[in-house]
């Protein structure tokens, strides 16, 4: 389910305006301009994409991501990270952008274990600077999350739409759909709901970008991950292929990084903010810039010396 954390302050939006019909759905708090309060610029077409932050209740917690059953990495050659430190660095990197992105989407697995109170307390503490800067944060629930616990941590922000807790963000240049793939399943109702969204004639020319935590098809490049229940994964891909306004699917879960294309739809396997499963793999976030006809993704690694840092990928809409 998507959980939206509005900004804690208001900032001035750049670009023409956000008076387009769709953007009005974002809410007054986000759209308000308040030059007296703060004049830092926010770009409504720039979105920070994060996944798999895996914040622990203990900010000192360190995890060796390359240690998993069957890992080819030798015992004394494992690599790991401090997760709180990774998110803190990513947040600081996002805040160094000029203009700032209007939104940040955390595509599941905010927590390290099962979404405990302490884990969300830490997660919220770490992302607070984004909200303080006027950035709206959206969160989907991954397999390590617990939506009830998160609602408890932020009770005013509980939003439920449909039985499966899905959400739609109307942005100036695209529509973002946030899906629920808790425990690797989506459910028939959610797939029907997605079909309705995709086939809505009034929005047929609006590019749609879909976010789901689980990988929709098996990936085995680094650590084998089955992902979504096979039938549902195929059904999801089938829907996206069918409806031309579906342009890209973003997912996490694999802690890997890949940009692929399947049947005209861009498949973005988001790199994790935190630990990675393959030695030397990148971790960090994606800086996405939307236009009317495409999107560009720039890889921002926690380690700015990583060879993937700064690499750009152009996603042309079909
Ligand atoms: Fe994860």
Descriptive account of the structure:
The chain is α/β, with parallel strands linked by helices and 318 residues long. The chain contains 6 helices and 16 strands. Helix 5 runs parallel beside helix 6 (230-242). Mean pLDDT is 87; it is low at 15-36. Fe (ii) ion (FE2) binds at residues 52, 54, 109, 142, 253, 255.
Annotate the secondary structure layout.
Elements: E1 3-5, E2 12-13, H1 28-31, E3 41-50, E4 62-64, E5 80-82, H2 83-95, E6 100-107, H3 117-132, E7 136-140, H4 147-153, E8 167-170, E9 175-178, H5 188-198, E10 208-211, H6 230-242, E11 246-251, E12 258-262, E13 265-269, E14 284-290, E15 294-301, E16 312-316
Helix pairs in contact: 2-3, 5-6
Bound molecules: fe (ii) ion (FE2).
CATH superfamily descriptor: Metallo-dependent phosphatases
The fold-level CATH name is Purple Acid Phosphatase, chain A, domain 2
Strand content: 25-35%
Proper CATH architecture: 4-Layer Sandwich
* Ligand catalogue: fe (ii) ion
CATH C-level name: Alpha Beta
Total strand count, please?
Answer: 16
Helix/strand structural class: alpha/beta
**Poorly predicted spans:** 15-36
Estimate percent helicity. Answer: 10-25%
Write down the overall geometry.
globular
Tell me about the largest β-sheet. 8 strands, mixed
What's the helix-strand series?
A: EEHEEEHEHEHEEHEHEEEEEE
- For the CA atoms, what is the radius of gyration? 18 Å
Distance between the termini: 28 Å
């Amino acid at each position: 389910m998507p959980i939206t954390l509005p900004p804690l302050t208001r900032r001035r939006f750049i670009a023409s305006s956000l008076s387009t019909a769709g953007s009005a759905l974002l809410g007054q708090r986000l759209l308000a301009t308040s030059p007296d309060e703060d004049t830092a610029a926010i770009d409504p077409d720039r979105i920070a994409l994060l996944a798999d932050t895996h914040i622990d209740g203990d900010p000192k917690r360190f995890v060796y991501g390359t240690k998993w059953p069957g890992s080819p990495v030798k015992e004394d050659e494992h690599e790991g990270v401090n997760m709180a430190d990774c998110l803190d660095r990513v947040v600081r990197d996002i805040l160094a952008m000029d203009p700032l992105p209007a939104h940040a989407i955390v595509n599941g697995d905010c927590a390290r274990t099962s979404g405990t109170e302490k884990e969300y307390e830490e997660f919220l503490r770490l992302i607070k600077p984004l909200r303080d800067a006027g950035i709206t944060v959206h969160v989907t629930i991954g397999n390590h999350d617990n939506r009830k616990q998160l609602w408890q941590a932020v009770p005013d922000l509980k939003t439920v739409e449909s039985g499966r807790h899905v959400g739609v963000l109307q942005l100036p240049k695209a529509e973002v759909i946030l899906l629920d793939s808790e425990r690797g399943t989506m459910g028939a109702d959610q797939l029907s709901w997605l079909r309705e969204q995709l086939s809505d004639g009034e929005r047929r020319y609006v590019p749609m970008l879909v976010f789901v935590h689980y990988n929709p098809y098996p990936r085995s490049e680094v650590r084998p991950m089955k992902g979504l229940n096979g039938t549902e994964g195929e059904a999801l891909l089938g829907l996206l292929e069918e409806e031309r306004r579906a342009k890209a699917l973003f997912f996490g879960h694999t802690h890997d990084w890949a940009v692929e294309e399947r049947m005209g739809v861009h498949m973005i396997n988001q790199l994790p903010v935190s630990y990675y499963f393959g030695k030397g793999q990148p971790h960090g976030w994606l800086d996405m810039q939307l236009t009317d006809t495409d999107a560009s993704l720039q890889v921002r690694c926690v380690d700015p010396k990583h060879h993937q840092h700064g690499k750009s990928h152009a996603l042309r809409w079909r």
